Amino acid sequence: MNPFLDYLLTAIPLGMTFLFGCTGEILTEKAGHLNLGIPGIMCMGGACGCLAVKLMHGTNISPVLIVIIALLAAFAGGVLMGMIYSFLTVTLKANQNVTGLAMTTFGVGTTKFIMSGMAKNAMQYLYALRYFRFPFAEQTSSVKYCGFMVGLAIIIALVASYILTKTRVGLHLRAVGENPATADAVGINVSLYKYTATCIGSGIAALGGLFYIMDYAGSYEAYKSIEALGWLAVALVIFTLWRPHLSIIGSILFGMLYLAGSRIPTLLGIQLDISATPLLQMLPYVVTIIVLIVTSVRKKREHQPPASLGLPYFREER
Amino acid sequence: MNKSVALEINNVSKYFGSLAANKNVDLTVYRGEILAILGENGCGKTTLMNMIAGIYYPDSGTISVDGQEVVIRSPKDAFRHGIGMIHQHFKLVDIFTAAENIVLGVNDGKAYSIKEVNRRVAEIADKYGFHIDPKKKIYEMSVSEKQTVEILKVLYRGADILILDEPSAVLTPQETDKLFDVLRRMREDGKSILIITHKLHEVLSISDRVTVLRKGEHIATVDTVSTTSAALTEMMVGKKVELNIERPQPQNVCDRLEIKNLSMVDAEGVKVLDDISFTARSGEILGIAGIAGSGQKELLESIAGLCHPITGEIIYHNPKNGKTEDLRDKDPVAIRELGVRLSFVPEDRLGMGLVGNMDIVDNMMLRSYRKGHSVFVDRKKPGDLAKKIVEELEVSTPNTHTPVRRLSGGNVQKVLVGREIAASPTVLMAAYPVRGLDINSSYTIYGLLTKQKEKGVSVIFVGEDLDVLVELCDRIMVICGGRVTGILDGRNTTKEEIGLLMTKTARDAEETSTAKESADGENV
């Protein structure tokens, strides 16, 4: 196959890992909460999903049901993490950065614990992976890259974009993130919006972890690299200027940049020293910094983060 | 006349901790009337209104709308009963359009369509004579446009009882007149309007009745036609207050600070100071009047060395050795050493002058720590100074080790001005020193400034209350859009004259934009 097409078709599913995390984080940030726990939440999603598959594998539950239950388990794992995060930052008004980082540490550690407990019979549940592919994937080489979750990621991003820009709920959510006192004054339930957005956002992000282990990587060991991808998802939020529909393209671009280290030399037919690969893997971060510089210089108000991002909201403060 | 009762408050109380913000307050508002709520800062006006608007919930007492007892637990409840509040600090989302802000929180069961909202907003605006573009973003709007959005927000929800919290605080006299016209039109329409203010002349000009609150208690409700400002003031403060500011003739006047052709651009390349020239003299108070954001802050900061003009001179006549020096060559520390002091920065009282989490003693030390020679800090001298300020200026604080952010606005101001005066300045610059202060504290501050003037200090006073400027200052410089539009003699001017100068260029700009708008309208 054309090496470039192959590169692109590998980058798309990898990008979807970012896209899940990014859409989730955008929803959270639009409510004014900077959730740095996304990497941990994605790990937990992977772990919970794998656990569900492992428990069901070998029983006579239908494969489709296994897939659905695995998705729900991952989503629930994310929501649970989101609940802990929201309780700390919305109700107790703890510092969002510290809480988020703690969630990441917690999520990554717990995932390691769950996954290593399963290591003995890892092969057994990995067999379930085939449920995540299209049934005809074996025959058609160009769709072998894309399980149904690729479509799911794009649909979720589009729906999120529609809700944010075109509906009343979206208007209210953006108001909460921009100026919670204003939202409160017009009778919007600020805490409810913050909780809901954070929990649903975390749930969506968690799907990314499951997708990465089960579909993209298809390997038990894959949980170890989710954390690094989670940070890229957070960077992607800045890169796409808090717009879920742009993040579809952004995530694919990030996927390509992430793979640049191994693919570009092949594409160009050159031999690169092995030590240059990590340098090329920095590309997504470099691009994010450039975007930050450009938007900061242009100072367009619409391109700035939600105004009250990271600030707890106290109603009685006068 | 037999008007129907729109809103009735019975025996309402609200406590914050052990402090009573409102104690057994009664209030009645009729349909088609404007009721002014008058009182000093901290007398519970805003708390009372917040209870009607659903921000706070009363600890005891009842609220009735149209004779029906109601429970208002949230702003949503208030809207349901037709009550809407326009807050002093605008509650608007900057990156939303006017229409988006107006429709925020409205759930009328209909499908959400921004086009339909735009149309309805324009319709309401027309009815009461507002000029507003529903599609304009808030961050592009002037203060008075933002206020219009706030009022429309309330009207859009179909409110019949409107509460306005100090609506004229941010407006020029001309804009205030426009607003009052709109309010009168609403009264004709049968709306009830509650207006919180502490400007007596406004109370007298717009309201039908006045309710006076003091220390959280209802003192009296009187008909506006049968009262005077002296009587109202007495009710407000509970004792007779001399409302005249003492203005002694300047003594030993000599030039202290000469500003020549000063210009400055901000980070976005916009000219914020445009060819400003004036002289500040010792022994007099020079007032600076202008709409907020006309360059006052930049001007004071340029003199203090905190920001850098592109052209012009700032010549300082040093009274100690008679030499003249250009302050533009000096850094802020050197300028301070010369005795040029900047106190009170308006936008952020705590941010520029004091550190909120530090106590009074440590805040004193912020100005003197360079004088220490030892590795360890010596808190004795600053401690003495803090004690002296607390005693002399009657700062009400538990002790000198209370973090400054826990003090009330007036006390914070006193600490700040006390510290600057203690260094015996030769030039004292004060921007909006009485913003948010009650009448008593304000007059203490005016007294302090006048005392400095008598000592031969050149005082530069940036103010927003034109009545005070006219009474306090020897000369008044008016700036508009970074330009000096006039320098007036404080003893022979009127606030109307100042008001006109304040909007001189702004009005020209407005005329061109209206012309443009009508041209756009034809294209559509």
What does this structure look like?
The complex is a heterodimer of chains A (318) and B (524). Chain A has a single domain (3-317), classed as ABC transporter involved in vitamin B12 uptake, BtuC. Chain A has 13 helices and no strands. Chain A has helices spanning 3-30, 38-56, 63-91, 96-118, 122-126, 148-166, 168-178, 180-185, 190-217, 226-239, 244-268, 276-281, 283-298. In chain A, helix 1 packs across helix 10. Chain B has 3 domains: 5-237, 3-Layer(aba) Sandwich (Rossmann fold); 255-341 and 424-523, P-loop containing nucleotide triphosphate hydrolases (Rossmann fold), CATH 3.40.50; 355-423, no CATH class. Chain B has helices at residues 45-53, 75-80, 98-103, 114-128, 143-156, 173-188, 200-206, 229-237, 296-303, 332-337, 349-353, 360-365, 380-392, 409-422, 439-454, 466-472, 495-502, 504-523; strands spanning 5-16, 19-30, 34-38, 60-65, 68-70, 83-86, 161-165, 192-197, 209-214, 217-223, 255-265, 271-281, 285-289, 311-317, 324-326, 340-343, 427-431, 458-462, 475-480, 483-489. Chain B has a 6-stranded mixed sheet, sandwiched between helices. In chain B, a hairpin with a 2-residue loop joins strand 4 and strand 5 (68-70). Residues 509-524 of chain B have low confidence and may be disordered. Chain A binds chain B through residues 166-168, 171-172, 174-175, 178-179, 181-188, 299, 301-302, 304, 307, 315, and chain B through 54-55, 74-77, 79, 85, 87, 91-96, 100-101, 103-107, 112, 137, 139, 153, 268.
Shape annotation of chain B:
globular
Report strand % of chain B.
Answer: 15-25%
- If interface size is counted as residues with C-beta under 8 Å from the partner's C-beta, which chains form the largest one? A-B, 23 and 27 residues
* DSSP summary, beta strand count of chain A: 0
Q: Major β-sheet of chain B, in short?
A: 6 strands, mixed
Give the domain tally of chain A: 1
CATH-level-2 architecture of chain A:
Orthogonal Bundle
The CATH class assignment of the largest domain in chain B is Alpha Beta
How helix-rich are the residues of chain B, as a percent range?
Answer: 25-40%
The termini of chain A sit apart by 65 Å
Gyration radius of chain A (Cα, Å) is 20 Å
Rounded mean pLDDT score of chain A: 85
CATH topology of the largest domain in chain B: Rossmann fold
SS strand fraction of chain A: under 5%
The low-pLDDT segments of chain B are 509-524
